[in-house]
Amino acid sequence: MKRTFYPALVALVALGSAGSLHAGDREGPAWASAVVAVDGSGQFRSLQAAIAAAPTATRDRPWVIYVKSGVYKERIYVQREKRFLRLVGDDPEKTVVSFDLHANLQGLDGKPIGTFATATATIDADDFSAENLTFENPAGLQGQALALRVDGDRVWFRNCRFVGWQDTVFLNRGRQYFEDCFVSGHVDFIFGGATAFFERCRILARRDGYVTAASTPQEQPHGFVFSHCTIRGETAEVRTWLGRPWRSYSSVIFLDTDMSEVVRPAGWHNWDQPDREKTARYAERACTGPGARPTSRVAWSRQLSAAEAATVTVRSVLAGHDGWDPLTAGARAARPSGRRGELRIALAPYLLTAPAAPHGPAPGREGAPRP
């Protein structure tokens, strides 16, 4: 039996679960603006309903949605107007947002819905953040299936898990910061044209494939930077490339990253397009482990000098035109930790309010060759 995707029906189911915003309807920490719980002990059973009900927030007064442990089988969409929205879960292992759309699923027009319509979570707003949550697309090996799509600017994730297979995390544009997160997949599972910094993140290759597929614009100084991360394989037999260039000026850097034998000695793949070897910007510095083999890497990648690597910091990579810095002291002083009743508020990601870039995914990827 063929499965057909009905986007409007999915939205109606989520909104039908909406609750009220009366304080007496919830059981949650004092710092929460709203509470979501699948067991009915919050104001909402649906996370999307809570997002839809969120009022206009500001950088000084973000709207914080506390998400209790449970599996939320729904898609979420944070629209462009929902700035300064925060999602804080109980525990990333136990607080899971999951939906299983994949690119080959038939839409209402009888055609495959395509990669960009599959995201479990789509973040269109600037100044969004999430902590202590899992975003999952369990579609498996049926085709491209996004767990996360980000189009917003100044977006950050802490202690989150992104679980999928092909195309798990799509960072389309803007700037994003990931700290102490986990990402799993097998083909191009971190991809897109955004500028993103991954600090102390755990990368898991589930089958043979490619970790990254950046489409960095030529004029953009940085694409993806991984610092103090780890790369592992789901089994001892898995082998992966660090990346391949989705677009000609693809930019990826690995700093101080522990690479197991899962990483192929050559490191980088040219996507069977030799011309991209002249323009792709791939580099490493001070990586360790059996997968870190500087002398075996392809000749068109680079090993940075200590001086060059010292200039690649969270601040320099993510500053952009407005000086955004998710690590400033004011920003990291107290934020919700995920433990009920403990309040630590982080304001840094909200200090600047410049508009994001225009919308629209990078063109042409649907027909990209697959291994």
Brief rundown of the structure:
The chain has 5 helices and 24 strands. It has helices at residues 7-16, 47-53, 306-310, 314-318, 329-332; strands at 34-36, 63-67, 70-72, 76-78, 85-89, 95-98, 121-123, 129-131, 134-136, 148-150, 155-158, 161-163, 169-171, 175-179, 182-192, 195-199, 202-214, 224-227, 230-233, 240-243, 251-255, 258-259, 281-285, 302-303.
Structure description:
With 371 residues, the protein is mainly beta. The protein has 5 helices and 24 strands. The protein has helices at residues 7-16, 47-53, 306-310, 314-318, 329-332, and strands at residues 34-36, 63-67, 70-72, 76-78, 85-89, 95-98, 121-123, 129-131, 134-136, 148-150, 155-158, 161-163, 169-171, 175-179, 182-192, 195-199, 202-214, 224-227, 230-233, 240-243, 251-255, 258-259, 281-285, 302-303. The protein is globular.
Report the structural category. mainly beta
Please mark out the parts with pLDDT under 50 across 5 or more consecutive residues, or reply none. Answer: 5-25, 329-371
Q: Portion of residues in helices?
A: under 10%
Number of helices: 5
Question: Mean of the pLDDT scores?
Answer: 86
Q: How much of the sequence is in beta strands? A: 25-35%
Task: Give the SSE string.
Answer: HEHEEEEEEEEEEEEEEEEEEEEEEEHHH
What separation lies between the terminal Cα atoms? Answer: 28 Å
Shape: globular
Number of strands: 24
How would you sum up the major sheet? Answer: 13 strands, parallel
Report the radius of gyration as a whole number of Å. Answer: 20 Å
What is the multimeric organization of the chains shown? Answer: single chain
